[in-house]
Task: inverse folding
């Protein structure tokens, strides 16, 4: 088996992660914050330790402003709907996932906000200057991905963060594809809100994610309910993280996510990034001169370990199916929940097949994948 769908979720997970799931599930999966007994207290402590690990990874300043969610979609909706008011203007880009575009579009259609979408060039690269030029007097928020989930293009979030700070605008970054691979420093990059899942390059389980909120920023709750704190009151607590974490959390998943971050720290984020980039570069090198293959993206260091392509006269879904059925190679075809990114690249009708590489992939697997792809291409010509 060759798994090349790490852009959806990393697989396999490190053994320390799966071992922690079993240890916690069998040993102390009490309800955190809801009781004074030892199991609940141990769960509470280890959840807090994961907050600390996340805060350190992104160089955050306030551990309690790490808000646990169930995925990046959850985090993005919480951030977007939690800071915007009627009449606000928002700037985003054509390279965003629907987890950004759909909540913003809904608010726009409901007449609550104004929305500007800045388009990338035909390589998928976002020019920060075009974002700056979209500024209006009522711009409240800029939202961008850090790295495209379809074409791997990396956004200059430092330049955008600096602009936002200078103009007193909130900056929300979708780090779904980048956290755990690219360097993220919320202080240095002037990021106000950072949304991300646990199940991708942080090596955590599905059903985990977080939103980091810069100190001093108020995010309104999307839901109210039990928090295990201030239980004598029918009012929602106002302090983080309680105000935004109603209901029983995925404690087992959060604690296992902490082990994923331990794994990253042990291996070294730079080592992970260099390995994945070497796989991407090797893949591109083997295919860039093939006249039957259309590669998308900048195809340079501005592109992360994600490569989408099409084969002339073949449907992306057909190729992905053959790779899976005949060769045990797993990819993702179609439109990847990013319709405007495909429109930007001219693939809104075709879609594309995405190869997303991860730490556990090898150069040998890349060679076998290209060999299988070329085999499919040659068979299609007959």
Result:
């Amino acid at each position: 088996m060759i798994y090349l769908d790490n852009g959806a979720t990393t697989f396999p997970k490190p053994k320390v992660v799966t071992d922690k799931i079993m240890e916690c599930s069998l040993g102390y999966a009490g309800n955190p914050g809801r009781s004074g007994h030892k199991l609940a207290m141990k769960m509470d402590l280890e959840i807090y330790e994961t907050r600390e690990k996340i805060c350190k990874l992104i160089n955050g300043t306030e551990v309690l402003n790490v808000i646990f969610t169930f995925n990046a979609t959850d985090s993005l909706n919480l951030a977007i709907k939690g800071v915007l008011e009627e009449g606000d203007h928002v700037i985003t880009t054509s390279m965003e996932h629907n987890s950004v575009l759909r909540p913003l579009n809904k608010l726009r259609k409901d007449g609550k906000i104004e929305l500007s979408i800045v388009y990338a060039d035909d390589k998928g690269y976002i020019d920060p200057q075009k974002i700056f030029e979209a500024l209006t007097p009522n711009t409240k928020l800029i939202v961008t991905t850090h790295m495209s989930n379809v074409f791997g293009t990396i956004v200059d979030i430092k330049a955008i963060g600096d602009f936002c700070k200078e103009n007193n605008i909130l900056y929300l970054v979708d780090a779904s594809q980048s956290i755990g691979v690219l360097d993220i420093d919320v202080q240095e990059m002037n990021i106000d809100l950072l949304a991300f899942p646990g199940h991708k390059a942080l090596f955590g389980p599905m059903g985990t994610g977080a939103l980091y909120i810069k100190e001093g920023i108020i995010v309104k709750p999307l839901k109210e309910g039990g928090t295990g704190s201030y239980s004598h009151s029918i009012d929602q607590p106002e302090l983080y993280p309680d105000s935004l974490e109603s209901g029983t959390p995925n404690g087992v998943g959060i604690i296992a996510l902490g082990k994923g971050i331990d794994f990253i720290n042990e291996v070294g984020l730079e080592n992970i990034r260099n390995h994945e980039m070497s796989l991407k570069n090797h893949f591109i090198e083997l295919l860039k001169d093939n006249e039957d293959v259309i590669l998308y993206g900048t195809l340079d260091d501005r592109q992360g370990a994600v490569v989408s392509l099409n084969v002339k006269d073949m449907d992306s879904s057909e190729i992905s199916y053959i790779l899976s059925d005949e060769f045990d190679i797993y990819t993702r075809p179609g439109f990847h929940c990013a319709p405007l990114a495909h429109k930007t690249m001219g693939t809104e009708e075709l879609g594309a097949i995405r190869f997303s590489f991860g730490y556990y992939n090898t150069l040998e697997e890349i060679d076998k994948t290209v060999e299988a792809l070329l085999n499919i291409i040659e068979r299609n010509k007959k």
Summary: The mean pLDDT is 96. The longest strand covers residues 139-145. The radius of gyration is 21 Å. The chain has two domains: 2-10+268-373, 15-266.
